[in-house]
Structure to design on (1020 residues):
């Protein structure tokens, strides 16, 4: 804490200029004193002896001459045991604690510790006196919910340190000293179970960053098979309003095959957060059998909360993700929506009177978006284990037009693109990811050749479909018509998925492979149908059987029965497997 | 302790600047011009240069006019006395009643702590079948009515105000035509709803700055009623005028516009108003219905587009009817499973059949011959439009559901409806 003080000289919205003596650093946190309340702010520009600060609260009532205290610290997150299951605002204030202090409303100037400082944790030392340690290496553990929470040498300590003393196994609060370490010159530092880390800096205490090759199962067929996401990878989900971005993220946060999920509700509806808050504690995590809330952290800065802390919220979220990655865990961070975050930057940029770029977004929009997504990654940690942060962001393009700057800047840096389309959502085809425009650079859970086969049916079917709109059914050959029906069936039974049915929504990797094989078999066969009406009714029945099959528990009796019904229908239709499909199925084995 | 200044440094549009010290951001001031008094609000301070936006507009202000700072922000009086009254954007009476100055509450207050909200799960009945039956309005929902100029959106709002199951109605008019203002006053007093209504009205000829104050005044009052355990319905018309007022002020103040001239914070500004819709744990609620006219019937225009991202669905008012396609209440699932067991199934079936009717209608217009099934659909479509969709229909939900079954039975065989057999057995009307 420095003794540096300043005085307000101008106010424009949430941008306040402060005259100061002494030294002030960029992105330093300061507090504006208004009567009895202090308003947290961040320095975003310095010119001579005037610092321009963005205030994280409403600025009503500030006067010229009001005092400002500089802290010398950057905006930081508290890291330590007790983060899981929390609901924070963008500045890591726990919302339930604020509710206890202030009641219904988020009164400004009320801040609370991000972590419970009273609670005792069962600490077990894992390092010994005399061990040499570095930042990001752990010296002990505490149990936190289903996880073993590692206690680290703070990430900000440079160089190597010798452990002088370490606490015995026992119960401690996060503020108590649990170890004393000495640097190379013998200067001693005491370490507790928590420390602060500036949210806008990436944590880099890993040995090596690895390529994201392991698929992160989301249990959504269209994603895992067609447009997969890798652990440590990045993906974005742009779509117009009402296309189901939030529902898709909600489903992902429930079923994704990761250890921890961090949800950043950034500038979206409060009602959606309430839904998560009501629903998650009731649901069980299939991996641990415990409440889903125990693996979740919610950072919630909804649209009516101050815009500057909205900008901070995604950074707070990704910092917590990096912290848990350091423990060798796989973390998924979901940001809904990155457009609101970009708009927060635009608002500040406008107040700073910067020269605007496209659609008045600041010129640095692209580099900020790139830097944010680059914080994802699959890494090898100092102890040899691996951890990952996967980032998925929704984008809300104005007018649903993907040409706009935020979507375009995001597409440049992500590894997978799940474009939602209005046509699909209007036709109630969920998830409304458009298979014709989406792409992914990661590995699918199904064999590549089979995937290509399915995709070619989709593309071919789409071509025939658009042709049929012009020439009508009469003008289409029977063969083309059958291809069209096959693509429609593929769409209906595999791409579309009911996220509200427990079995259907949770479609694992094994099942996806199994079902794809069946699909390749059926779609790669020719049938003895004489007319379009025959074909239509045959594929209708096949589709119905397949949908029934989707709703049965994998490898259950009902599953086998539903499958045998499909086989029977296949025989009735005189299905003949084509040579390429046969080869495909053989090679895949 | 009020500070008084007698020198105005500059006047640009509705914004004036004075040299003053110790002024608070967002503080109110009173300006005495030769046309009378007006309020003004501080919206920028640079050293001792203070910018104020004058509620009554810049016209006729002289550099020598007196500016008196009041030492507080914009506030609104709150008490039961508000009911039945009409105010303007400055909070002054528009009717013949006395000015209210008791229990002043700040407007544009902080947002509700999300952990203090509860999941929306109560239906708000309006007795309009296209709402109750097909896109149920839920207590604490925020829904815009997307429409275009010339559509009867104000008539629809007035009907909702008279029929909705709410304890208090707070109506905000922005850029309202004077005729529409009179219509609201008339309709509400004839309908007997005036006594539970508070109106804040800015008409098209009133100063722009006052237009911007309306939603905040309305929502501040609504929130206070909600905290007194009342279910409040807020009706706003028209939010596009509000956005245009913001645009006008932003451009006068030389802000960099982002999209079609609108300021970059349009989303945040709209969201901070709409997000006042809330169902408080252990207290009342605020439900918001806001007309948003779409310039050129273009839903990608910045105002409806940003609104769509904020609200929980939308009603499309087109051709004098609430369109079943395009209209969506995102929260209807939370309530329509609890009303009557045939509600969801009947709703789905009727919409599906109506969509088939539309296809058939297209075929008919193109001159194709009509099959017997087509004829049935045509009959159904006409009945559906006249008996359920028309805005003049006024039916409680249960009666509307019964009517729905009657229409189906009138047009189709049981198995043509695609409704589960057990529901058909229970609800299919006997002759």
């Amino acid at each position: 804490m420095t003794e540096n003080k300043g005085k307000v000289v101008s106010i424009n919205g949430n941008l306040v200029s402060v005259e100061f003596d002494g030294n002030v650093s960029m992105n330093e946190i300061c507090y504006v004193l208004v009567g009895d309340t202090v308003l947290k702010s961040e320095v975003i520009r310095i010119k001579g002896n005037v610092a321009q600060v963005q205030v994280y609260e409403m600025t009503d009532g500030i006067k010229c001459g009001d005092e400002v205290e500089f802290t010398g610290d950057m905006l930081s997150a508290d890291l330590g045991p007790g983060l899981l299951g929390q609901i924070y605002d963008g500045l890591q204030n726990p919302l339930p604690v604020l509710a206890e202090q202030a009641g219904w409303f988020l009164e400004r100037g009320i801040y609370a510790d991000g972590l419970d400082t009273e609670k005792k944790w069962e600490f077990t030392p894992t390092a010994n006196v005399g061990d040499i340690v570095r930042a990001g290496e752990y010296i002990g553990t505490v149990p936190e919910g289903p996880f073993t929470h590692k206690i680290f040498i703070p990430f900000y300590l440079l160089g190597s340190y010798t452990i002088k003393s370490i606490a015995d196994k026992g119960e401690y609060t996060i503020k108590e000293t649990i170890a004393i370490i000495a640097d190379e010159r013998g200067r001693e530092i005491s370490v507790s179970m928590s420390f602060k880390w500036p949210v806008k800096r990436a944590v880099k205490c890993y040995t090596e960053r690895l390529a994201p090759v392991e698929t992160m199962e989301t249990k959504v067929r269209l994603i895992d098979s067609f447009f997969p996401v890798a652990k440590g990878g990045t993906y974005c989900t742009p779509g117009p309003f009402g296309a189901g971005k939030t529902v898709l993220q909600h489903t992902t946060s429930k079923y994704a095959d990761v250890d921890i999920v961090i949800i950043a509700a950034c500038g979206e509806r409060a009602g959606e957060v309430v839904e998560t808050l009501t629903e998650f504690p009731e649901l069980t995590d299939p991996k641990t059998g415990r409440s889903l809330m125990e693996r979740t952290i919610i950072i919630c800065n909804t649209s009516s909360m101050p815009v500057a802390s909205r900008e901070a919220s995604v950074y707070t979220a990704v910092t917590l993700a990096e912290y848990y990655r350091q423990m060798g865990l796989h973390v998924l961070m979901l940001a809904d929506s990155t457009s609101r975050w970009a708009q927060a930057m635009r608002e500040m940029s406008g107040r700073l009177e910067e020269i605007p770029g496209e659609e008045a977004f600041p010129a640095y929009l692209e580099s900020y978006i790139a830097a944010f997504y680059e914080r994802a990654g699959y890494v090898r940690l100092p102890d040899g284990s691996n951890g990952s942060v996967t980032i998925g962001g929704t984008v809300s393009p104005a007018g649903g037009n993907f040409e706009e700057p935020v979507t375009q800047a995001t597409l440049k840096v992500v590894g997978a693109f799940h474009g939602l389309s209005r046509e699909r959502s209007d036709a109630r085809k969920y998830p409304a990811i458009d298979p014709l425009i989406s792409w992914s650079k990661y590995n699918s859970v199904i064999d590549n050749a089979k995937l290509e086969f399915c995709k070619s049916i989709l593309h071919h079917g789409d071509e025939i479909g658009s042709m049929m709109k012009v020439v009508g059914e009469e003008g289409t050959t029977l063969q083309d018509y059958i291809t069209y029906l096959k693509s429609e069936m593929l769409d209906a039974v595999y791409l579309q998925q009911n996220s509200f049915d427990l079995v259907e929504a949770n479609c694992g990797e094994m099942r996806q492979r199994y079902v794809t094989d069946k699909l390749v078999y059926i779609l790669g066969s020719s049938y003895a149908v004489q007319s379009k009406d025959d074909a239509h009714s045959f594929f209708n029945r096949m589709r119905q059987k397949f949908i029934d099959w989707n709703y049965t528990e994998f490898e259950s009796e009902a599953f086998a029965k539903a499958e045998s019904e499909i086989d029977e229908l296949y025989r009735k239709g005189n299905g003949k497997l084509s040579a390429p499909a046969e080869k495909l199925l053989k090679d895949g084995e | 302790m009020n500070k008084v200044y007698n020198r105005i440094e500059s006047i640009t549009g509705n914004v004036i600047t004075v040299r003053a010290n110790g002024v608070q951001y967002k503080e109110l001031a009173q300006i005495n011009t030769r046309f009378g008094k007006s309020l003004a609000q501080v919206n920028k301070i640079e050293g001792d240069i203070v910018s104020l936006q004058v509620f009554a507009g810049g016209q006729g202000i002289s550099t020598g006019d007196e500016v008196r700072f009041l030492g507080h922000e914009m506030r609104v009086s709150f008490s039961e006395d508000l009911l039945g009254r009409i105010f303007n954007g400055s909070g002054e009476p528009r009717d013949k009643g006395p000015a209210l100055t008791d229990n002043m509450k700040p407007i544009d207050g902080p947002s509700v702590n999300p952990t203090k909200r509860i999941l929306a799960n109560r239906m708000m009945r309006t007795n309009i079948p296209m709402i109750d039956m097909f896109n149920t309005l839920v207590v604490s929902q925020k829904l815009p009515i997307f429409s275009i100029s010339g559509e009867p959106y104000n008539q629809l709002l007035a009907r909702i105000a008279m029929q909705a199951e709410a304890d208090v109605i707070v109506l905000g008019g922005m850029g309202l035509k004077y005729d529409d203002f009179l219509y609201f006053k008339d309709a509400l007093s004839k309908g007997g709803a005036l006594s539970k209504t508070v109106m804040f009205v800015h008409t098209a000829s009133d100063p722009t700055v006052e237009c911007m104050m309306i939603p905040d005044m309305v929502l501040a009052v609504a929130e206070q009623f909600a905290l007194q355990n009342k279910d409040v319905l807020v009706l706003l018309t028209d939010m596009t005028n509000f956005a245009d007022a913001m645009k006008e002020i932003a451009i006068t103040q030389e802000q960099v516009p982002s999209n079609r001239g609108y300021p970059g914070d349009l989303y945040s500004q709209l969201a901070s108003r709409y997000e006042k819709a809330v169902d408080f744990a252990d207290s009342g609620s605020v439900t918001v219905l806001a007309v948003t006219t779409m310039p050129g019937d273009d839903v990608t225009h910045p105002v409806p587009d940003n609104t769509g991202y904020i609200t929980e669905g939308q009603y499309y008012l087109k051709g004098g009817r609430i369109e079943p396609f395009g209209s969506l209440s995102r929260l209807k699932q939370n309530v329509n499973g609890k009303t009557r067991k045939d509600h969801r199934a009947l709703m789905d079936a009727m919409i599906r059949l109506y969509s088939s009717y539309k296809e058939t209608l297209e075929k008919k217009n193109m001159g194709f011959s009509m099959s017997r099934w087509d004829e049935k659909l045509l009959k159904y479509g006409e009945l559906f439009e006249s008996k359920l969709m028309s805005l003049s229909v006024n039916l409680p939900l249960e009666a509307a559901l019964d009517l729905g079954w009657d229409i189906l039975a009138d047009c189709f065989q049981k198995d043509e409806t695609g409704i589960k057999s057990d529901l058909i057995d229970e609800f299919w009307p006997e002759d």
Notes: The two ends of chain A are 64 Å apart (CA to CA). Chain A has a mean pLDDT of 92. The first strand of chain A starts at residue 5 and ends at 12.
